[in-house]
Amino acid sequence: MYRKRKQNTIVAATALACGLFNYAALAGGGEPAVLKRGAQLIAYGGCSDCHTPLKMGANGPEKDVARGLSGHPADLRLPPPPKLDGAWNWAGSASMTAFVGPWGVTYAANLTPDRETGIGAWREKDFVQAMRTGKHVGVARPILPPMPWQAISTLSDRDLRAIYAYLMAQPAVKNKVPDYIPPTPASSKAGGGRTPG
User: Fold this and answer.
1) Is the same domain home to 20 and 89?
2) For the segment 115-127, what is each residue's pLDDT rounded down to a tens digit?
3) Rounded to an integer, what distance in angstroms lies between the CA atom of residue 119 and that of residue 115?
4) Structural domain contains residue 168
5) Are 183 and 102 in contact (CB under 8 A)?
6) Is 182 inside a domain boundary?
7) Which of 22, 124, 167, 168 might form a disulfide with 28, Cβ 3.0–4.6 angstroms?
């Protein structure tokens, strides 16, 4: 009896997982192979490292999967950033979603398909163009550090479309990321001097 119940549970879990994967494929309009490639590229690029906030768990910081790829949490108000000097010219928040440097303060964007606060209103060609040019869609503001758009821009159109398909297949999370804060004259001078490397 126990063995049969266990087998039924495994079959049900497998069917559910397959159904969710197929739903994700349909929601993103992509084929499973395209979504798999997009997932691989997201993993290789470490996109979740900055675009999925960390929270404190039982064993220390862990990814807040309920907010997966939703960027800097709108409800997370940060104190003023630390003072930077030439030797230490950038810093990141404990959530790994906010960064400060000579460029100002940047917040990891919401990459979920939410149409109001994420990239849900972006077309595939908008996404590809943003990754190629390093310019935000609609506002033409540069995509700022630490986002490695220069490296991403070297990917093929096919790979960029796979990333887009994967992002569009994720659950939409409503999260209005704070606006970019330009550097103050004092902070941009503090970041000057020698650059690392």
Assistant:
1) no
2) 999 999 999 999 9
3) 6
4) yes
5) yes
6) yes
7) 168
State how beta strands 54-57 and 60-63 pair. Answer: antiparallel
Distance between CA atoms of 69 and 5, rounded to whole angstroms? 36
The predicted model scores a pTM of 0.77
Looking at the structure, tell me whether residues 68 and 8 fall in a common domain. no
Q: CB neighbours of 103 closer than 8 A, spacing ≥ 6?
A: 144, 145, 183
Find all residues with CB under 8 Å of 195, minimum gap 6, and list them: 89
Task: For residue 21, give the 3-state DSSP assignment.
Answer: helix
Residues 5 and 79 occupy one common structural domain: no
Do 177 and 85 lie in a common domain?
Answer: yes
Which secondary-structure segment (H or E) carries 139? Answer: none
Going by their DSSP bridges, the two strands 91-92 and 98-101 should be labelled as antiparallel
- The answer, yes or no, to whether the previous bond of 53 is cis (omega within 30 of 0) is no
State which residues form the domain around 177.
Answer: 32-190
Whether 37 and 162 have beta carbons less than 8 Å apart is answered as: yes
Other CB atoms within 10 A of residue 48 CB: 17
Q: Domain tally for the chain?
A: 2
Quick: pLDDT tens for 132-181: 999 988 767 899 999 999 999 999 999 999 999 999 999 999 999 999 99
CA distance 92 to 175: 20
Shared domain for 171 and 76, answered yes or no, is: yes
Contact, 68 vs 170, CB < 8 A?
yes
